[in-house]
Protein: GPR endopeptidase
Amino acid sequence: MESYGIRTDLAIESAQMFSKKNGHLPGVQVEEWEDPATAIHVTWVRISSLEGEQALGKAMGDYITLDVPELDQPDGSYHREITTELMRQLKRLAPDIQKRKVLVAGIGNREMSPDALGPLVADHLFITRHLMEEYGKDSEVTRGLGCISALAPGVMAQTGIETREILLGTVKETQPDLLIVVDALAARSVSRLNKTIQMTNTGIAPGAGIGNRRYGIDEKTVGIPVIAIGIPTVIDAAAIVNDTLERLLSVLPTIDSSANGDDRAKKRQAFQAACESVAVFDHQDRYLLMRELMEPEMMNMFVTPKNMDEIITQMSYTISEAINSLCHTGI
Structure:
């Protein structure tokens, strides 16, 4: 069977897949807690060893995941609560963010809704670097404001330039203290689609989740600390089939094979036997089997909700408000 990994940008999914198959991994610490008032579940994954980095396929560093059941719902008051939690966790990654000159890069293609998160966040930011350059940081105009600049560099198919190359030039010329990269991600589970926010201080590899990995954007490559924020907006078609199969396996014990006549009972017994033969595989192996069985045209298919336009706009405001509120005390 051809070797494929389950495509995911989420460190928590990689950690869960590994722990289910291999148990605890030295050098990987996981903390979890939940706010009962908002039902926002926070998971902090810290990879502190080369062994953990290699096993999970994620760079050493901190990964914070917010599981938000209603993230894709148009409830303004609830999104304010999400913004508050997002600010709290971002401040853990960058405690002195208000004192830093921040450059925000909105990665992705604004012409494609599932990939437009980064550019939309950049559009909604309150940009102040030009004001700081003009009036200074202690003037009446800029009092209480942080220093934010932003750009949406597009994708290489539009510009012919690697995103990292654009950011390297911008960082060199504008000299920010911190780079925040915002990008859409890929998930391996339908339950996390548009319901999870990931933050990390390890940077990002644009396109990695959909098998189109570009050059990484991190502190080593750009020379300043990098925080990456992302939301999974697409999922591999094979992962959807795999999730469906797992749900089917979970309900098989409730099927009464003796009901509704002998012929139907025999069909159910045959179907159950076929499913139970698949049940011996773990999650990763079942995923590989699904990819093997799918038509070649479907192997590189990624799926997103039909109302993605509305969802991506709402989520972009949630992230931009968190960055605005963290950096600016005067608004």
User: Anything to note?
Assistant: DSSP finds twelve helices and nine strands in the chain. The longest strand covers residues 226-236. The beta strands are 28-35, 40-47, 61-67, 101-106, 147-151, 178-187, 196-200, 226-236, 302-303. The longest helix spans residues 308-327.
